[in-house]
Write a structure and sequence with these properties.
By secondary structure, the protein is mainly α. The protein contains 16 helices and 10 strands.
Amino acid sequence: MTPRKRKSRIYWRSQGGARRAWFDGRDYAEVGGGREPLIASGERFATTDPDVATQLAAARLTELETARRRRAFHGGRAVETQLGAFAQRHLVAKKKGGKVTDEWLELVELALERAVAFFGAERELDTLRVSDVRGWIAWLEAYTTPRARRLGAGTIRHHLNALSNLYRRAQEEEIVIPGYNPVAALMEKPAGERREARWIEIHDAALILEAARQLRPLGGTTLDAEAMARLRAEWADGRHPSKRAAGKAYGVSDVVVGRILRGEQLPAPPTDDAARAHVLVALFLLTGCRFREVAGLELDDVSFDRRTITIRPNRWRALKTRTSHRVIPLWPQLEAILRAWVFGSRLTRGGSLLVPSWSVQGEERRLRDIHRLLDRVATRAGIPAGELRSKAFRHTYCAARLQTLDRGAPVSLYTVSRELGHGSEEMVRRVYSHLGEVRHRSDVVEYRLEQH
């Protein structure tokens, strides 16, 4: 028997004393179609207005037809074609690929989260247009971070690159047609201002290194277990009106009092934090290593016999590129600093990292952030807090190394580029080389106050 031809996809049901419109999409069942109430935006029940029902039915039919065409394009397989779901899939794939660091992946995730916030998680990938991307750029330019800062042009460009890379994967997985990328179609994109990178003059670097050596330790405590137990008991009895008053009575800060009351392990008062600052600044200035490379250095990576430091991947961190695996000279000034550290306070703590961070439970961890520590060093050296960062040390090492001699002759660009972990000399020539006011020719890299 031939099925009766459908006159309309809208049919009516009596509900709650009113005739309400429903949609019949059973012939689209393979893409989620069925008998559905036609509910207008902001309403709880199906509409009673025929005109509104017609518009809702047309929109739903278009949606189902698009889903059917997309399903046919992908050979009948179910795929994630919405921005939110595919962004998660994209991040997982990049993580499994192992070609980017976790820190970089976090930045990509942040950029895609902002894209989802603007476009919507349910936005179909093949519906984004160049005009939509321009709208996102305008939104990013007006966006304010939790620290009340605006995004720079370079940061916005990174956001665009993250979305463009997502569309490259969508093309690879045949989610969109080959060549479909609304970001790549932009004629003009925001770009960061190109200027000479921030670096530190050699004599200023010597001052900073000395400031790190003289850094005062932050408040630990000399209180023994009996004194801390007595403080907790007095606090429980209400004998101290505030933590500041309790700290004044026991000769410690209110921060230390808070940690004692919470039962946290307190740092010893000696110079562990101050000595670590000296070692970290010396490592940055005398190796030119990236922050992750320094944070992941193990004790076995330092050879006092061969006078070398080996940068290699380990369980703490991967390396940025294939050429990042390298061997760096252990300069005499750094050797003296590391010997005092390794065979001094570092030896008593155990573990494998050269400069670790410790949890309150005493567990060894890799350093994640040293901004506050560098701010303290900067303040000690008379530099405004926030202006001293590890990236500048890498540039400073390159500038100092280019002034050294290698067996009596000026060191080659190739040697310096390999020590920095670059695959070519171009990065040194174009980005990392700086000509300072004071050029100190020497056989070694060093930063000594008495020379300036």
